[in-house]
Amino acid sequence: MKAADWTAVGATGLAVGSVEPQNGGYVVNVYVYNVSTGQELTAHRFTCSAAELHMTAHHVADVIYQAFTGKPGPFASRIAYVRQTGQTYELLVAESDGWNPHPIVRGLMPVFSPVWSPDNRRLAYVTYANARAVIYVQDLATGQRQTIAPGGEIVSAPAFSPNGTELAYARSSGGHTELYVANLQTGQRRQLTHDDAINTSPTWSPDGSQIIFVSDRAGGPQIYAMSASGGAAHRLSYDGSYNASPVYSPAGNAIAFIHRTDGVYALAVMKPDGSGVRVLDAQGNCDHPSFAGNGQMILYGTQRGGRKVLAEVSLDGKTMAILHSNAGGDSQPAWSH
């Protein structure tokens, strides 16, 4: 590698790779260099089948990302999301760029709020059964489903605890909505909130000590925090009249949420104490933000050209990509851990 050839065009880093057929599959090599010094930063070799070639490209991207940033890459991961085509709803799982989607659920009943378990082996989501909303926790390998909460209750907004043993959710009754936590092994549950407001969209802090959620107890949807064991809640969001769908970053140093500004439901982030609100995307109405496992990118639903699409944006807002699809409208995404 001749450093001068690349510094002349302003490059600071260089990745060189090769793909070679071998025994019906492929060998993929990648070498990453610091252009200014000529130093080889890292080199990796992958073997894969033809079916695994696209995911291997994600692994290569992760190698390059980590070589230059020092942080794990987010690319060799999966996303779940909801697609509506006509009257048909699908819960799909795909690679992080939307490639190779395959259905987990397909039918005429709407599907909402998919969320990954911490080990990425299960998905919790909301759909309808017997004209009632129900939460399922589905094992992706076996297809086996566990129903959360007794039949007949109106439930929504599932969220796994960081250790995967509990599920927080919202239950509606008598004109108000309260938060509950169910033990996935014993079925026992406990009530977190006790008031006449609408309390919904719970999500756990990475250490499991806190739950943030949305409540209209002050007149409009705002973000609150409380101990995961229950007790008093304190308000986090004060910027604007509508703040919803909060989610912690994996490191707990940021919260992504939906923030209404100038009539648009924008994607925004703030510090864990509610300060430092920054809007990342206000080009179209956004929904359901979800952090990548490395905490440096956010996946979310939005609208472009009158269509529902998925998008990814970096935490600093400098890089954005639309995951284009030629089928249906895509929304409510969740990024695996």
TrEMBL record:
It comes from the Bacteria. Gene3D superfamilies: TolB, C-terminal domain, TolB, N-terminal domain. Keywords: Periplasm, Signal. GO terms for cellular component: periplasmic space. It is found in: Periplasm. One of its GO terms (biological process) is protein import. Belongs to the TolB family. This is Dipeptidyl-peptidase 5.
